[in-house]
C-alpha cells in the first residue's frame, strides 16, 4: 500500500502549505505579494504549539497561531502599504525576523510534548477501500482546511466581496472611483493571508509533527508563494499544487522507511524542484491571468 | 433637437468661485457654473484649458482650494468621489475606469451595488432594462477586454445610470473614442437623458457637437471661464472659436500636394499576421508599403491593432507569418537594434510609461535614441553630447527644456516634446509615430505637424497613427484603416473623405 | 514652472545619486537609533540592561584589534553577497539567490581544492580556487537566469527555491562524495591544503579576503556609474520599455548580471573556505546570502555604500556573540535586532515619487 501511504502523507504534510497558499492567494488577489508567509507560518507554528502546551486545547492553539501569523503580516502590510516599501524585500525581512523571533521565543518549547490534533476517521466514508483511508482519516483541522477551499472560491467569484478583492489587485484606481478604499481592502487581505499562513503553521506543529523545531517550516512559506503563481491564482489549483508538494515530501519519508538506497538529500530536493518544474510548465499562460498590479511588482516597479 | 423652457428650471448644482492650484500652477480660477435638470451644459476648451480639473472637482476627485458648490440650495462637499456619488453625480471618464479581467456584470456590481452578496439575476435584469431604454447595447457576460471602446463607453454610462440617485451626469470628451456614425447615436442618447430630466455636463473641444446639442455653453481658457451663454445658436461657431483661442495667432499647417506620384517603396509588409499579447491574431493578411517622402496615416478605432502593428515594424514584436522587408532586406527576425540600424525610429503611444526613465536627465534620454553618443573610453562624453543637443535645430524648434533636467519631473506635454525632438534629431529614413499631438496645445501641435511634413519632404517615410481624423487628412498622402483584424486601403487622401473613412473604421470592408 | 536644475545635476551618475533622498540628518539619526531603542526595551523585558550590553558590544567590536578583525571578517561575505544582489538590482532584478550561490561557490572551490589544487603553490592554487568558487556561484545563478530569460519565471521565486536545493546539494556532498574519510563520520569535507589558505593579519583571524571584497565593490561601482555598460544596465533597470525601444538586448543583460552576481557570491563562498573554515560543512555561510541581500537593501543597492552596510551587519553579527556571553540570550536574538533595523530602514525608505 505504498501509494496509499504516500497519498495520505501528501495530505498530512501538504495541508500546512495548502493553507498558507490559500492565504497568499487572497493577498496576491488584492495585489500584495508576501514572501513573509514563511515568517507567518513559523510564528503560527510556534504560537499554536505554545498555546496548546499551556492550555491543552489545540483549537485555542489554532486561534493563537492564526493571530500570531496575522500580527507579523501586519508589519508587512504597514511597511508596504503605508510606507511604500518594496514588497519583495519587506517580505524577506519578515521571513528573517520570523526566524529570529521564533528561534528565540521557541527555545523552551523544543522538548515539549503535546497531544494536539489527531486523525478522526469519518464513519462509513473512511471504510471505502483505498480512497477512504486517503481522504477521510485526518485530523479535524485538515478537514476544515479542505472545506475552506471551495468557500474561498465562492467568495472570490460569486460574491461582491470577491469582485472588490479582485478589482483591488487589478486596478486600484477603479475602486477609488467606486468609493471603496483599496488600501483598506489590501490591509484586510494581507491580514487574512497572514492568519491563514499562521493556521498552516499550526497544522504543521500541532497536527502533523506534534513538536516544535527551530525553523521547522523549511521554506514551506516560499513554496506556498510559488504555488500561487503555479495555480494562476485559483484556489483549487493551489490546493492541488500543495498536495503535489506534500506527496513529494511523503515520498521521501516512505523511501527512507523502506530503506531504499537513494540519498535522502536528493529526496529533500524533490519538492522544491517539483515546484520549479510546475512553475515552468504553466508559465506561458500565466501572464494574462496575473493580477495587473502584481505584475508591476514582478516587473520591478515594486522593486525600487 | 432643442427643448424650449419657458421658465428656467431650478438648478441641480451651482458652483461658485471654484479654484484649484497644483503647486505654482493654477489649473482653475474662480469658476462659476450651473447644471439644470433636463439641460445639456457644454464646457468647451482646448487641451490643457483646465476642463478635466474642473470636472474632477465636481466629481470629488480633487478638493477645490477655494469656492463653493450648492446642491438643493445647500452647500455640498463633493470630495471624495463617494460623497459626490451619494449626492447623485455620475461621471463617464475619458480613460475608462474598467478592469479588463472582469465581466460587464461584475464591473457594474462593483460600482453600483453594496454589501457582501451579489444578486446576479436581479442586476442582470436592471442592466438589460437600462440598456434597452437608452439604446446602450451591452452584453452582461462579456469580459471588458473583449469590448471595443464604444462598448466600454456604453458600459460606463450604464454604470452611472444604475447608480442609485444619479441626476447629474458628467461626460468627459465622450466622442473622442467614437467614429462619426457612433457620434450620432450618442447624441440621440443624450437627448433621451435630457428628456428624462437628467442634468448633463458635456466636456468637449469640438464646437460642432456643442452647436448640435447644447442648451448652455461655457468656454474655458487657461483655467478661467472666458465666455458663458444660456443660449446656443447655430451661428455661434466663430464666437466660440475666438473665445477658445483668445489672442493666439496660429501658423497654418501647409502641405504641398505630392499627390499622384509613385514614390520608391522602402518598407514592405506582405501578407503579415500580427499576434497580440496572448498569442491571438490581431491583424491578418496585412499588406503595407511605406514609401520615401510619403506620410501614410493609420485610422481606426483604437485597440484595433495599432500598437501591435507599430511594434512589429520596430522589432518589438515578432511577425507571426508573412514577410517584412526594409530596403529589400528581410527583417522578420531582426532585433530592435537592427531595425534602428536600418533607419527606423519609433515614437510610442505612451511616452511617459515607455520612454521616461526615472531619475535620468533629458540629455541621458537623448543619448538613448536620438543623439549619437560620443564615446570617451568606456564612458560617454557627456559634455560633447550636451553641446550636440544645444546645437540641434529640432530641439530648439520644440523649445526643449534644459538638458540637465530630470525627465520624470517634466509635464506630459514636455515629455512629448522630448520624445519627438529625439526622433526628429535622428532624421530617420522611416519614422513610426503614434499620436504625436496627444496632450499638446494647439500651437505645439501645429509645430509638430509642420515638422513631420518637412521631414517627409526630406525623404523620410512616415507612418502616422492618430485618433484625430482631421490630423490624418491634413498630413497624410495615403490612409490605411485598421478594422476587424484587417488593414484596409491604402486610400488616397484626395480621393476619399472623412465620412467614408469613418464608415470603414466602423464596418470594415463591407462599407 | 521653471525649476532650478543646478550645475551639479549633469552627471552620468544621476541615476545613482538621486537628489532629495537624504532627509534631514536629525530625523535620519533618530530612525537609525529607533530599532536599538526598541530592542533595548525587548532586552529590559528579559532583565538585561541594554546600556551595559550595548557598551560591551561596542567594546568587543572596536575595543581591540582582534574584535575589529572579527567584524571585518564577518563583513567580507556580506559585502560580496550584497553586491550579488545589488548588481542585478540595478538592472531591475531581485536576486535573493546569494545564499545558494555562495553555498555552491564554496562547494566548487572545496572540491577543486581537495582534489586538484592540493599540491599547488599558493600563487597559482589560490587564484584557481577563487575561479572555481566564481564558476560555481555563476553556474548556480545561471539556472535562475536561464529560467528567467528562457522560461519567463520570476527570478525572486526561483532564486529563493534554489537556495533550498543548494543547501541540500551541499548536504549531499559533505555526507557523501566529499566527506572527510578521517572525520569519524562527521559530515564535513577534508581540510584544504595549508598552502591554499588566505594570508592572515598577525594577531587576528583577518585575512586578505576583505581587500578583495573592497576591490570588487569598487569595480562594481565603477562599471555601473562610469561606463556605457553600466548606463545600459541602469536604463534597463529603470524602464524596461524604454530600454527595449532603445534597442538594448534586455534578456542578454538580465542573464549576465545574474551570472556576474552569482560569481560574486561564489567568491564569497570561496573566501569562507580558504579564509576561515578550511573545510566545507553543511553550515558554511548559512544566512550570509540573505544578510547580503539585506545589506544591499540598506544601501539602496549602491555598491560603495554596501561596504558600509555590510560592515554594520558584520558588527551586529559579532555583537551577537557578546549578547550570548554577556546576557545569556541566545545568539538568534540578534536576528531580531537585525530585523528591527531593516524594518525601520524599509519604513523610512524613499517612496516611488
Topology at a glance:
The complex is a heterotrimer of chains A (304), B (511) and C (353).
Chain A: H1 2-29, H2 37-55, H3 58-82, H4 87-105, E1 120-121, H5 131-135, E2 137-138, H6 140-158, H7 160-170, H8 172-177, H9 182-208, H10 220-230, H11 235-258, H12 264-289, H13 292-298
Antiparallel strand pairs in A: 1-2
Chain B: E1 13-22, E2 25-35, E3 40-44, H1 51-58, E4 66-71, E5 74-75, H2 81-86, E6 89-92, H3 104-112, H4 120-134, H5 149-162, E7 168-172, H6 180-195, E8 199-204, H7 207-213, E9 216-221, E10 224-229, H8 237-245, E11 265-275, E12 281-291, E13 295-299, H9 306-312, E14 321-326, E15 329-330, H10 336-341, E16 344-347, H11 351-354, H12 362-369, E17 375-376, E18 379-380, H13 382-391, H14 393-397, H15 412-425, E19 430-434, H16 442-457, E20 461-465, H17 469-475, E21 478-483, E22 486-492, H18 498-507
Parallel strand pairs in B: 3-8, 3-9, 6-7, 7-8, 13-20, 13-21, 16-19, 19-20
Antiparallel strand pairs in B: 1-2, 1-4, 4-5, 9-10, 11-12, 11-14, 14-15, 17-18, 21-22
Chain C: H1 25-45, H2 50-62, H3 65-90, H4 98-115, H5 122-149, H6 155-175, H7 209-226, H8 228-238, H9 240-245, H10 250-277, H11 288-298, H12 303-327, H13 333-347
CATH superfamily of the largest domain in chain B: P-loop containing nucleotide triphosphate hydrolases
Q: What is the 3D shape of chain B?
A: globular
Shape of chain A: globular
Biggest sheet descriptor of chain B: 6 strands, mixed
| Estimated share of beta-strand residues of chain B | 15-25%
Briefly note the CATH topology name of the largest domain in chain B. Rossmann fold
Indicate the CATH architecture of the largest domain in chain B: 3-Layer(aba) Sandwich
> Count the strands of chain A?
2
Content-based structural category of chain B: alpha/beta
Biggest sheet descriptor of chain A: 2 strands, antiparallel
Helical fraction of chain A equals over 70%
> Which consecutive residue ranges of chain B, at least 5 long each, have pLDDT under 50?
none
The number of helices of chain B is 18
- Under the CATH scheme, which class of the largest domain in chain B? Alpha Beta
Q: Which strand order does the major sheet of chain B show?
A: 6-7-8-3-9-10
Q: Output the radius of gyration of chain B.
A: 24 Å
Structural class of chain A: mainly alpha
- The share of residues in helices of chain B is 25-40%
Q: Over the alpha carbons, how many angstroms does the gyration radius of chain A reach?
A: 19 Å
As an assembly, this protein is heterotrimer
